UniProtKB/TrEMBL annotation:
It comes from Bacillus taeanensis. The keyword Isomerase applies. It comes from the Bacteria. It holds the Pfam family Fucose_iso_C. The keyword Isomerase applies. Coiled coil: none annotated. GO terms for molecular function: L-fucose isomerase activity. Transmembrane segments: none annotated. This is L-fucose isomerase C-terminal domain-containing protein. The lineage of its organism: Bacteria, Bacillati, Bacillota, Bacilli, Bacillales. InterPro entries: Fuc/Ara_isomerase_C, Fuc_isomerase_C, Fucose_isomerase_N/cen_sf. One of its GO terms (cellular component) is cytoplasm.
Length: 459
């Protein structure tokens, strides 16, 4: 009788929060001794990488064994199917699998253990047959080839599983939209039904004016924590400044909603009401939330917030959202800027994150700094009349002085910056760009393919 193994591992730093089912498939007419070595190595590596791995204790060599194993599995407990053609096996195996399980499939073929003489596994043909069957059944899948100890194979599977983790998180993502977008900022809005159908993202509206009113009623002992949190990273913060107090009150009120309602990201209408009604800038609120993992876009830019969320998940650090405001042909660079929002840790360490006032409204408190240097990926989940698309650029954030009041970063592009600028304008890209300090181009391309949206790589 087959045994079901459930492996859990919560100690690894980069472990994926995924529950996978690993199905090693083979036939007894092939070299199962060599196949068992691959199975054991595969299971061990998958267990190291994922939170939970459900697998049989040996290779499944008949459809009856597969059916018995699957009968013990609850579909809701699984995020991804890893279907390994340890040896050749006909399509009845994969047909039975997808009849039972609706999840994304990763088809895995291994190398022949030797060349010359008997074809011991014929795994590649098994994978070929499996992929054909999945395509005929219109099932989403990916294919990988290589042995479980190969680094290239491990990186590819990790990338695919990381994409599935992000897809899962997008389906669980609720964006708190605090006020409608400002007049004329049409790109900040979304079609909620289409957004949910394509990405799984949910929208929850929060009344901005009600938030202003109720945040002022919070007791000092509750909102003072927000000031103390900011003081840990913000230079020159005056806790007695009225705008700092208003920041703390509003931040705390929204934080309570986030925790009570399960909100994971924000899109905030930052003007004109923040200045005219609250008497403070929204920039500091957005900065602190983003620093602490709740990505927050200004001007109620919903797709901007989603873009930041995706970059945070793949890049593993706080993202930035800015306008493209300047071109320097001599440096082959462009500058991204915003009037005072930026996660504290993005500041150039030479200056740190400094408290300031809004460059136009002269109200605090905002961030004043140039961003740190390093390799970056620039991206946006974009929307036009044809549907969604993912826009991607890579670059190098330069160690240059702050160029404009607020927060800004100069980025050297690998391709001609002037030509890139013209391409962006010709493609009608929205004027908010998300940036993260990591090279995640391949991950973004894979995510786009998984979501069924167009990818445009500019640089």
């Amino acid at each position: 009788m087959l045994e079901t193994s459930v492996h859990s591992n919560s100690k690894l730093k980069n472990k994926l929060n995924m529950s996978i089912i690993y199905l090693p498939i083979g036939r007894k007419t092939f070299d199962l001794e060599a196949g068992e070595k691959y199975r054991a190595e595969s299971e061990a590596w998958l267990t190291e990488m994922c939170e939970k791995v459900i697998s049989p204790s040996e290779i499944l060599t008949s459809v009856e064994e597969l059916e018995q194993f699957l009968s013990e599995i609850h579909s809701n407990d699984i995020d991804v199917i890893i279907y390994q053609s340890v040896t050749f096996a006909d399509a009845e195996f994969i047909a039975k699998t997808i009849e039972k399980l609706p999840q994304q499939v990763i088809v895995w073929s291994v190398r022949e253990p030797s060349v010359g003489g008997r074809l011991r596994l014929n795994s590649l043909t098994g994978g070929n047959s499996t992929c054909h069957t999945l395509k005929v059944h219109n099932r989403s899948y990916r294919f990988v080839f290589g042995n479980p100890t190969e680094s290239a194979l491990q990186k590819r599977i990790y990338r695919y599983l990381k994409t599935e983790e992000v897809v899962k998180k997008l389906a669980q993502l609720t964006i708190g939209v605090v006020g409608d977008h400002p007049p004329g900022f049409y790109f900040s809005s979304t079609d909620e039904k289409e957004l949910e159908e394509r990405t799984g993202v949910h929208i929850q509206n929060i009344d901005l004016l009600e938030a202003f009113k109720k945040c002022a009623e919070l007791p000092k002992e509750e909102w003072l924590q927000a000031v103390e949190r900011a003081e840990k990273q913000v230079i020159g913060l005056n806790r007695s400044d009225e705008t700092v107090i208003k920041f703390a009150q509003f931040y705390t009120y929204i934080k309570n909603i986030i925790e009570n309602e399960g909100i994971n990201a924000l899109a905030v209408r930052c003007w004109p009401e923040f200045f005219n009604e609250l008497g403070a800038a929204a920039c500091s609120t957005l900065s602190q939330f983003t620093e602490d993992g709740v990505v927050s876009s200004c001007e109620s830019d919903i797709h901007g917030s989603i873009s930041m969320f995706i970059l945070q998940e793949f890049g593993g650090s706080a993202p930035y959202l800015g306008d493209l405001v300047h071109l320097n042909e001599e440096n082959n660079s462009v500058t991204f800027w915003h009037c005072g929002a930026g996660a504290y840790s993005l500041a150039n360490p030479k200056t740190g994150a400094t408290a300031g006032v809004h460059p136009n409204r002269k109200l605090g408190f905002t961030m004043e700094f140039g961003l740190k240097a390093g390799a970056v990926t620039i991206a946006r989940l974009s929307k036009n009349e044809e549907g969604y698309r993912m826009l991607i650029m890579k670059g190098e954030a330069l160690d240059t002085p702050q160029q404009f009041a607020g927060t800004s970063v100069e980025v050297r592009l690998p391709k001609n910056a002037s030509e890139t600028l013209y391409h962006l304008m010709e493609d009608g890209v929205e004027p908010h760009y998300a940036i993260v300090y990591a090279d995640i181009e391949e991950q973004l391309i894979d995510l786009s393919k998984r979501l069924g949206i167009e990818t445009i790589v500019y640089a």
